[in-house]
Amino acid sequence: MKQSYYLYKSGRLQRKDNTLKIVYKDNTKKSIPVERVDDIYVMTEFDFNTSLLNFLSQFGINIHFFNYYGFYTGTYYPKELLVSGKLLIKQVEHYNDKEKRLNIAKAFIEAASYNIYRNLTYYNNRGKDLKDYMKEIDFLRKQIKLCKDVPELMGIEGNIRKVYYDSWNIIINQDIAFEKRVKNPPDNAINSLISYVNTIIYTRVLSEIYKTQLNPTISYLHEPSERRFSLCLDIAEIFKPIIADRLIFSMLNKRQITEKDFEEGLNFTYIKDEARKNITREIDLRLQTKIKHKKLDREVSYEYLMRLEVYKLIKHLLEDEEYEGFKMWWYMYVILVYDINLENKEWQRVLRNVFKTCKKYLVHIQNSVFEGELLESQAIKLKAELDRYIRDDKDSVILFKSRNQRWLEKEFLGMIEDDKTDNFL
């Protein structure tokens, strides 16, 4: 299986037969079969030669470069192995046609804003009061279809982002000041974190585009310009809320990252080296996490979802299928109710353990009732943990599950009681 490799120790990268050989400055060595390499992230000083670059080009391996402060500086993008004159013409046609371009740009923002809204819903269901932000974003999302050109659409997108970023001080449990999004350069810890994680998403999208016949410089939402792969920016908009933002919230709220992991420069803030390693490791793990794709009916990784998004855009450009941006579907809405037998005072321990387990995953509503949104994997973990405490002959837990809050699928754990809502008597 191919994977990304991250180089943090200075040294030299060279070719040895059909493998990549890393010689570090302390003379330790490591070999990597080239067939296992998807792309390479160079996070420190490294020496190369043209022989290596030619070798990597044969296998279509991108190299992404970051400077001392963790800021992205560029990508070595090999000569494209997959080319299609027909598709290139279609890409240009859809850019030159204002209506066609606008429709694609709207699909990007429609999906990105939906995923933003789902993030707010997720944390609102976990006790964060985000209703006002959700209401405002919902209003702005309704304006997307009314936009008459791309600049107007970008204005709506900017307003959605502003409202969204305003909510971060509520979502994040640490006392880290975050007033507005500042990019070049980032001026505080949160902005530095956003810039770094978003850059990883951008480069991953670039690597996925390289595996197709799309040209990464022709874009529809962001204006094409020199020295940037603007189509990556378009597609990354969809995945930033799903992968980047969720990762940032999780790492900050679990205190895996704190203010001590950042350093102040002359007029910017950057992430310390060790913290960058931890963040990158978490991003990589998340990108390899698999979910069951509802259309393909098989498990795919978050990373592969990016390539599927590129394929969807290709089908649209070739006029095979209307493009619709990717929207989160895998969070299920859950209502949990339990009944613990307390005839014996010693059984209070069971109640306490069940309550603490439920509260770890869901929002406590009243007495023995919890609700919220869960990943399929989280629901499995919740049931496994509850199984440690639930006594099949004394206690019961009922899970009401649905892809939305309208239709519910009921599941029983422990002692099964008659379904009082069943109309088949």
Tell me what the structure shows:
43% of the residues lie in helices and 20% in strands. The strands form five sheets. Strands 14-15-13-16-17 form a five-stranded antiparallel beta sheet, with helices on one face. Strands 1-5-7-8 form a four-stranded mixed beta sheet, covered by helices on one side. Residues 420-425 have low confidence and may be disordered. With 425 residues, it is of the alpha+beta class.
Chain-wise SSE layout:
Elements: E1 3-7, E2 11-16, E3 19-24, E4 29-33, E5 37-42, E6 46-47, H1 50-58, E7 62-66, E8 72-76, H2 85-96, H3 98-124, H4 131-141, H5 150-166, H6 168-171, H7 189-210, H8 230-253, E9 262-264, E10 269-271, H9 273-288, E11 290-293, E12 298-301, H10 302-317, E13 332-339, H11 348-361, E14 363-366, E15 369-374, H12 376-387, E16 396-402, E17 409-414
Parallel strand pairs: 1-5, 2-6, 5-7
Antiparallel strand pairs: 2-3, 3-4, 7-8, 9-10, 11-12, 13-15, 13-16, 14-15, 16-17
Helix pairs in contact: 2-3, 3-4, 3-5, 3-8, 4-5, 7-8, 7-10, 8-9, 11-12
Descriptive tags:
single chain; alpha+beta; 12 helices; 17 strands; 43% helix; 20% strand; disordered C terminus
- Major β-sheet annotation: 5 strands, antiparallel
Assign a percent range to the helix content.
40-55%
Output the radius of gyration: 24 Å
Determine the number of helices (DSSP H or I, runs of at least 4 residues): 12
Low-confidence stretches: 420-425
**N-to-C span:** 53 Å
Task: Output the structural class.
Answer: alpha+beta
Query: Helix-strand pattern, N to C?
Result: EEEEEEHEEHHHHHHHEEHEEHEHEEHEE
Q: What is the count of β-strands?
A: 17
Strand order of the largest sheet: 14-15-13-16-17
Name the beta content range.
15-25%
General shape: globular
Mean pLDDT across every amino acid position: 88
